[in-house]
Amino acid sequence: MFHWLEKNPFFFAVGVFVVIAYAGLIEILPNFAEAARPVKGLKPYTVLQLAGKEVYKKDNCIACHSQLIRPFKSETDRYGQYSLSGEYAYDRPFLWGSKRTGPDLHRIGNYRTADWHANHMWNPKSVVPDSIMPAYKHQYTNAADLETAYAEAVTVKKVFGTPYGDDIAPGKAAYEKELKTKILPEALKIAKATKREDLVKAVESGKVPEVVALIAYLNRLK
Amino acid sequence: MNAMIVKALVMAGVLIVATFVVIKQMHIDLSDPINMITFIGAIAIAVLTFGVSAKYMQQMKSDSATGELAEDNWDGIGEYKNELPSGWAWSYVGTLIWAIWYFLMGYPLNAYSQIGEWNKETKTYNTKFEKKWKDATKEDLVNMGESIFLVQCAPCHGNSGDGLDGKAHDLTHRISKAQVLHVIKNGSHYFKYPMGAMPAGLAQGKDAEDVAAYVAGGLKGKAPTAWATCAGCHGQDGKGNNGQAPNLAQIDDTLIAQVLTHGKQGSIGRMPSFANRFTEVQDKALAEYIKTLSSAK
User: Fold this and answer.
1) Of A2, A71, A82, the CB nearest to B89
2) Which residue of A has its CA nearest to B161?
3) In whole angstroms, what is the distance from residue A191 CA to residue A201 CA?
4) Is B283 found in the same domain as B184?
């Protein structure tokens, strides 16, 4: 009955190619659409936020938390506005995740504050009594890797044209300047908002604890 | 029926009986459709596994080669003309037809949009919701408010609304002494009441302490002399002049609405704004519930 399909190998090969290529095309084409450009007003991650993103990856938050609110009423009711593809324009890589043991975090910056996160990462049960999330106390003593985060910013600026200002430039001197004028003040503001003396002291001494960077990153998710 | 098929069916039967015994042992309720479907699936797997393997074993034992030979012949080794497996061929042709439909009518060209579907879903739901709860009783509102509170507010304010030991505002009281002192010292314009911003430092030293104690104590007893300054805006009874300034006596609808809309910042920290998160009915429900928290005391 289907002998006609394979009688002409060339036709058959082209047919198979078209079917498979079509599936690819449908997934790839939308990425070139206007909707995939950065949404209006989207700013690239600051260096501190990038360092926080690294902590998020390192401590594997993605294993239990997603960062993608699907356009279903049940999700927008709980997590807020549905996600747009243009919001991930500066995510390299994006951290959508596919597992929700915990809640989605894509709008967490809208609904939680620095001190809440500081309480939560130290002992999740202190703010969410039924929480099964483990504590992440090491984040309060480990220092965030700011140099790598800075290098990442320089790299994405050079390779992908991420719109950072002239401040982000290669070299130790540029890093030191960024650290002094941008990263540490931003970290200090967050540390003060957490109301934890140890965090404030650490930042003042020039070492940014991982949790401060992580909070900077989480507050940026909105 | 030959022996091989009989053996396979017996094996499948044993497996099915074993499954059933386990179901009984674990007291699994088969009237639940999900459990029933799972059980039927298990039977199907047992029958198919043994049935199919019996069929092929039978075939290996008894089959002899039949069919039309292809013309090509390699050193005496021929090849049968086999049709494409019909299942594969049908899915292939089906995919081609579907792809054409999808390209022309579906997502890429015809602009089907998930967002459009979301808009429709939300609109339908909200219309239904508003209609259903148009004349909600106070009890309905309190129950609804509690559900919203537990999801959206409890992470910071705690399940009982007590503010989790100072991590957020204790909703079972109007305001604490420390909070009043903070506002007197720093002023406040976070609620955006019609009266405008409250300037910092309207009372000093002992006056401030007295007023703070008086307000935190629920405006009971004799008002301190410095209260006159506060009464100018908040009213002699502290109730905020009908929504012109924050009500200091109790948590009221206006206060909850203003905080939800604008968020706030005070001695404890920042509360984010929840503007446009809830429908009108939900806002009302939340207010009713939060009011029950403080009146219980």
Assistant:
1) A2
2) A127
3) 9
4) yes
Instruction: Give, for all 297 residues of chain B, the pLDDT tens digit.
Output: 578 888 888 999 999 999 999 999 988 888 888 889 999 999 999 999 998 998 888 888 888 877 888 888 888 888 888 888 889 889 988 988 888 888 777 766 666 778 888 999 999 998 999 899 988 888 999 999 999 999 889 888 988 888 888 888 888 888 888 888 888 888 888 788 888 888 888 888 888 888 888 888 888 888 888 888 888 888 888 888 888 888 888 888 888 888 888 888 888 878 888 888 888 889 889 999 998 887 654
Nearest CB to B121; choose among A73, A116, A119: A73
Task: Please state whether A37 falls in left (phi above 0), alpha (psi between -120 and 50) or beta.
Answer: beta
Find the domain containing B222 and state its range.
138-295
Nearest to A3 among B83, B95, B96 (CB): B83
Q: Is the pTM of this model over 0.80?
A: no
Question: For A194, which residue in chain B has the nearest alpha carbon?
Answer: B269
Residues B24 and B160 reside in one and the same domain: no
Question: Do A159 and A79 share a structural domain?
Answer: yes
Is A195 an 8 Å CB contact of chain B? yes
From the CA atom positions of chain B, what is the Rg in Å?
Answer: 37
What ipTM goes with this model?
0.72
Residue type, A86: G
Contact A112 B272 (CB under 8 A): yes
User: Which pair of tokens denotes residue A97?
Assistant: 């995740």
Q: Which domain holds residue A76?
A: 47-220
